[in-house]
């Protein structure tokens, strides 16, 4: 299934979910979802950015990417799928 090309948090979460369902490791799913979100939001920066920064279009004050935060987002998406399977 093609990834959601919208510039939104919901699209980002959906893309992580789709990539994990397709068998990709969590870290790779997160990286693909971030890349897709950047393209969808028109962000051309090669710097690491948080999801909030991408959605707000702030490429100036780039925060350091923290893998433990990515793990939390992936965990939340997977948990939501367990409790609400028709949404994911």
Describe this structure in a few short sentences.
The protein is mainly α.
List the secondary-structure elements in sequence, H or E.
HHHH
Q: Compute the average pLDDT.
A: 81
Counted beta strands: 0
Structurally, the number of domains stands at 1
Which radius of gyration do the C-alpha atoms yield? 13 Å
Structural class: mainly alpha
Largest sheet: none
Principal-axes geometry comes out as: globular
Portion in helices? 55-70%
Described by its quaternary structure, the protein is: single chain
- First-last Cα distance: 13 Å
- Summed up, the helix count is 4
Spans of at least 5 consecutive residues whose pLDDT stays below 50 are 58-64
Descriptive account of the structure:
The chain has one domain (9-83). Helices cover 59% and strands 0% of the residues. It has helices at 9-21, 26-41, 51-56, 67-83. The longest helix is centred in the C-terminal third of the chain and has 17 residues, at 67-83. It is globular, with a radius of gyration of 13 Å.
Give the topology:
Layout: H1 9-21, H2 26-41, H3 51-56, H4 67-83
Helix pairs in contact: 1-2, 1-4
Features of the shown structure:
88 residues
